């Protein structure tokens, strides 16, 4: 008997939280927004969601099989990437483009850099930017909410941000903004559903409130100061989706509280600069991507001071 | 003190299953193996040889080094071996094996010490063989005679007992509260300290109530109820949470005016001053999912842990892991013939399910380790620097401050062996200096 005793380094008890349970909770937190997207944009939204999730998981599985690496699909991180990417796409996007985006996210951005935990930029965001630049027209053909009735591509629905930038059309009401009854990508329109999911993640201590709070607050204050309607700026576009679900990606955001604050403010500033002064109506994904890239530097500059440490 | 920003830590399940188990006295085993290395510092040299007859309390090992503590026989009987044994940490040390006669005859040298001054007090503490019983095993007489004694004003009694399962300190308070307070008062008196603070985690309300009741009229003794958050009983954490003082890197508690003693240490000291019986027994919790009847035991030092487990009804199921110490910092052993040491406070045995080691997956940079570390260290960054062999970064990341409490590895969702990495990183630092 005694020659079978296991000897391992301490500690001998571990918390029940695992990578898989964290990712599962993120998917759960995205559920309200997924449901909302299907309700608002109809069955097409569901097809985009399924395409992205299946392509992401399949891409990860096949890549790891080909490279003879251990299969990591069970950690659910590929599912999260798939859902978040789908949330960033317009419901009218051809499905093959959604699949291309998924493969870019998993193979190019995640696996080629070493798999989970090693990517320098958020896979879903990078894939969205790649799609936006490659297929600009379909990626910016926004569909009005159809609630599953009218043919989905019957009319073009400009996003509130585009309306604000170009003027001409009328802006949706505030209630419509909160419920997501306006043009936009799948998951970004229903602010309430995103807020519920975000608050769930904060309550479960899966994400820290620092990044979303500083990101959203920065956009609110800056747009107000610059004479814009700050409410429409925080509810329109992908700010809630980006702030709660993409900027908070562990791998590509700073670890310390101070670093998170800098990251959130940086994202907010870049977002506003792009929205107001650049060619694109929306800047959330570019802002997060740029801040992803400088995250290692933020990390190095915001190391914690050790308790009792000499420096 | 409520204004202090409390240090990080983790919420671990308490499993204080044995808190109501009164201490039972373990029958004298057939033989004991008394290690000559039961303290931090130079090991002792045996002062007895094979076939010598020894009695309880007789000195069997001494050292002339400053940081050391004499070792006494815990039994009466015949020395049958003076040789080297392998310790649970993998190192070899000298040990004296005694075959007991079960008579427990007490040595003539065991008489109450005459203590009237600080010098005599320190001399007595040294002769008692007392080391830090909370786990560190630092010779107490050295701790009680710091160079800057005049600047020390507070005695902090560590009764936090933050490790899961272990209740031996709790039983010490419940059964020997008089000795706990008397021991603390003796230290307070001879070291001329203004204040005594007894820190207890708030998952032990009966102990807090008892100590508060017994110290009601004494303004110099404070009973501090501390949140049950691991590692509340870590020395620097306890000092900070009870006095607000921060022990700087490379300094000792005495440098900030505090001396910390474990509750079992002060209780022993009180008994020693009354009887002169040196440190020969230890209160040990035996628990875990593989133990048939968990108990608290008073055992002669040097008793093989197999005897403790047998007395607790043996294993009720095949054990997967046996620990000396608690689940957060204890050492997993591969054999059951290791002897109980002065600073052991628990023997835990877990069934195979509880012993299973979870699969290690890649770090996802979630930062849970950073938010768990009481000392604000960054274990994930340390791991990265260690893997890269980056000694400069390890130095900047202050891995040398790590006390190996286990919070980071406990909190890690990827189940990375962060404590082991920190140990190896510290080793790397000392080797490349």
UniProtKB/TrEMBL annotation, chain A:
GO terms for cellular component: plasma membrane
Modified residues (FMN phosphoryl threonine): 159
Enzyme class: translocase
Presence of keyword Phosphoprotein: yes
The EC number(s) this enzyme carries: 7.-.-.-
Transmembrane segments: 20-41, 46-63, 83-108, 120-137, 179-202, 209-226, 232-252, 261-278
Pfam family, one: NQR2_RnfD_RnfE
Topology class, membrane: Multi-pass membrane protein
Membership in a protein family: Belongs to the NqrB/RnfD family.
Function: Part of a membrane-bound complex that couples electron transfer with translocation of ions across the membrane.
PANTHER family tied to this protein: ELECTRON TRANSPORT COMPLEX PROTEIN RNFD, ION-TRANSLOCATING OXIDOREDUCTASE COMPLEX SUBUNIT D
Entry protein name: Ion-translocating oxidoreductase complex subunit D
Organism: uncultured Anaerotruncus sp
Gene this protein is translated from: rnfD_2
From TrEMBL, chain B:
Co-factor binding comment: Binds 2 [4Fe-4S] clusters per subunit.
Cofactor: [4Fe-4S] cluster
Keyword flag Iron: yes
Membrane topology type: Peripheral membrane protein
Single biological process term from Gene Ontology: electron transport chain
Cited HAMAP family: RsxC_RnfC
Family affiliation: Belongs to the 4Fe4S bacterial-type ferredoxin family. RnfC subfamily.
GO cellular component: plasma membrane
Organism: uncultured Anaerotruncus sp
Role of this protein: Part of a membrane-bound complex that couples electron transfer with translocation of ions across the membrane.
Lineage, highest ranks first: Bacteria, Bacillati, Bacillota, Clostridia, Eubacteriales
UniProt KW keywords: 4Fe-4S, Cell membrane, Electron transport, Iron, Iron-sulfur, Membrane, Metal-binding, Repeat, Translocase, Transport
Protein name (Swiss-Prot/TrEMBL): Ion-translocating oxidoreductase complex subunit C
Location(s) in or outside the cell: Cell membrane
All copies of domain 4Fe-4S ferredoxin-type, residue ranges: 352-383, 393-423
Presence of the UniProt keyword DNA damage in the record: no
NCBIfam families: PRK05035.1, rnfC
């Amino acid at each position: 008997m005694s020659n079978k005793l296991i000897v391992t380094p301490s500690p001998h008890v571990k918390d029940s939280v695992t990578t898989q349970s964290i990712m599962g909770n993120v998917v759960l937190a995205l559920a309200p927004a997924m449901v909302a997207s299907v309700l608002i944009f109809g069955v097409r939204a569901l097809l985009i969601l399924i395409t992205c999730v299946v392509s992401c998981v399949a891409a990860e599985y096949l890549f790891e099989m080909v490279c003879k690496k251990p299969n990591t699909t069970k950690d659910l991180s590929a599912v999260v990437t798939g859902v978040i990417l789908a949330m960033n796409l317009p419901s009218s996007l051809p499905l093959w483009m959604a699949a291309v985006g998924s493969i870019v996210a998993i193979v190019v951005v995640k696996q080629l850099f070493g798999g989970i935990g090693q990517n320098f930029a958020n896979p879903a965001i990078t894939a969205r930017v790649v799609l936006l630049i490659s297929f600009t027209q379909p990626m910016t053909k926004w569909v009005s909410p159809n609630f599953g009735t009218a043919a989905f591509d019957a009319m073009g629905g400009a996003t509130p941000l585009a309306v604000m930038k170009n003027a001409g059309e009328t802006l949706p009401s505030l209630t419509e903004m909160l419920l997501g009854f306006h043009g936009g990508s799948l998951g970004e329109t229903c602010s309430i559903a995103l807020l519920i999911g975000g608050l769930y993640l904060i309550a479960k201590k899966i994400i820290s409130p620092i990044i979303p709070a500083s990101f959203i607050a920065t956009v609110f204050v800056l747009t107000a100061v610059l004479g814009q309607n700050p409410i429409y700026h925080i509810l329109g576009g992908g700010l809630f989706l980006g702030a709660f679900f993409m900027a908070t990606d562990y791998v590509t955001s700073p670890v310390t509280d101070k670093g998170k604050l800098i990251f959130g403010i940086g994202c907010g500033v870049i977002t506003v600069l792009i929205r107001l002064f650049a060619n694109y109506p929306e800047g959330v994904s570019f802002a997060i991507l740029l801040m992803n890239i400088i995250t290692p530097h933020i990390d190095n500059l915001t190391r914690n001071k050790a308790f009792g440490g000499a420096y | 003190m409520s204004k202090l920003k409390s240090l990080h830590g983790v919420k671990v399940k308490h499993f204080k299953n044995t808190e109501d188990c009164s201490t039972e006295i373990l029958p004298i085993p057939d033989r004991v193996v008394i290690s000559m290395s039961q303290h931090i510092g130079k090991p002792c040299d045996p002062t007895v040889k094979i076939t010598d007859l020894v009695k309880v309390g007789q000195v069997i090992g001494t050292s002339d080094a400053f940081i050391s503590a004499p070792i006494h026989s815990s039994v009466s009987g015949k020395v049958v071996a003076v040789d080297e044994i392998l310790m649970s940490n993998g190192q070899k040390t000298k040990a004296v094996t005694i075959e007991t006669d079960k008579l427990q005859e007490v040595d003539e040298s065991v008489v109450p010490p005459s203590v009237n001054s600080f010098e005599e007090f320190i001399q007595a503490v040294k002769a008692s063989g007392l080391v830090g019983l909370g786990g560190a095993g630092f010779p107490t007489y050295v701790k009680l005679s710091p160079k800057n004694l005049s600047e020390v004003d507070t005695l902090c009694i560590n009764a936090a007992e933050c490790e899961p399962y272990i209740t031996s300190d709790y039983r010490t308070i419940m059964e020997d509260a008089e000795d706990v307070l008397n021991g603390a008062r003796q230290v307070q008196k001879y070291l001329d300290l203004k204040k005594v603070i007894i820190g207890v985690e708030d998952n032990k309300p009966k102990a807090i109530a008892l100590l508060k009741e017994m110290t009601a009229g004494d303004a110099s003794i404070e009973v501090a109820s501390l949140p049950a958050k691991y590692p509340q009983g870590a020395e620097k954490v306890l000092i900070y949470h009870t006095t607000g003082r921060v022990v700087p890197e490379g300094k000792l508690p005495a440098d900030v005016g505090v001396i910390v003693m474990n509750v079992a240490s002060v209780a022993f000291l009180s008994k020693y001053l009354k009887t002169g019986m040196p440190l020969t027994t230890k209160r040990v919790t035996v628990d875990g999912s593989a133990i048939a009847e968990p108990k608290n035991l008073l055992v002669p030092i040097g008793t093989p842990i197999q005897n403790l487990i047998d007395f607790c009804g043996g294993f009720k199921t095949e054990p997967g892991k046996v620990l000396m110490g608690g689940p957060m910092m204890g050492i997993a052993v591969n054999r059951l013939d290791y002897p109980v040491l002065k600073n052991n406070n628990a023997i835990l045995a877990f069934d195979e399910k509880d012993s299973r080691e979870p699969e290690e997956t890649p770090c996802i940079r979630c930062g849970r380790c950073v938010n768990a570390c009481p000392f604000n260290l960054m274990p994930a960054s340390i791991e990265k620097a260690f893997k890269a062999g980056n000694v400069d970064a390890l130095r900047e990341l202050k891995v040398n401050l790590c006390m190996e409490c286990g919070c980071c590895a406990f909190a890690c969702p990827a189940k990375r062996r962060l404590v082991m990495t920190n140990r190896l990183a510290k080793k790397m630092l000392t080797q490349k200096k």
